[in-house]
Amino acid sequence: MRIAKSLLLLLALAFSGLSFAAETKSATVYKSPTCGCCKDYVAYLEKNGFKVSAVNEENMDPVKARYGVSRGMSSCHTAIVGDYVVEGHVPVTAIGKLLANKPKIHGIALPGMPQNSPGMGEMKSGTLTVYELTVAGTPKVFSVE
C-alpha cells in the first residue's frame, strides 16, 4: 500500500511538471513580415522547444508601447512568453532563468541587434547583456549570456 501511494504521488508530480513545462514553452512573437533576423529568431525558439505563434506587424511602435518597451531597450521584435515580455534576440538560457525564477519584473530585453545573438549569427557565450524590463524603466542587468 505504501508503495502504491508513493507511485501515485510520483505520477501526480510528474504530470503537474509536464503541464507547467507545456505552459512555459509557448511564445507569441510580434515581428516585421520582411525582417529576416526575426524569422531566424522564431526558428531558434522553435529549435529550442518553444511553440511559437508569429504575428506580422507593419508598425512595431504600437506593439512596443502596448507592452511597455522603451526605445532604449527595444529591438526588432517583441515576444510574450508566459506573463513576461521578451524583447529582442534574447537567448533561451535567459528566458529559462526568467521562467524558473519568476522575478517581479515586466520582462527582459537584449537591446538592439547584436551580431552574435540568436537569429543574428553565431552566438558567443558571455557577450550578451540581458536587461530587466521594469515598470520604473530603470535598466538593470538580468544576466550575461
From TrEMBL:
Asked if the keyword DNA-binding belongs to this entry, the reply reads no
What residue ranges carry the coiled-coil annotation?
Answer: none
Q: Name one Pfam family in it.
A: DUF411
Q: Which residues form the signal peptide?
A: 1-21
User: Which keywords annotate this record?
Assistant: Signal
Q: Which residues cross the membrane?
A: none
Give yes or no: UniProt keyword Glycosyltransferase: no
**Which InterPro entries does the UniProt entry name for this protein?**
DUF411 (IPR007332), Thioredoxin-like_sf (IPR036249)
What is the designated name of this protein?
CopG family transcriptional regulator
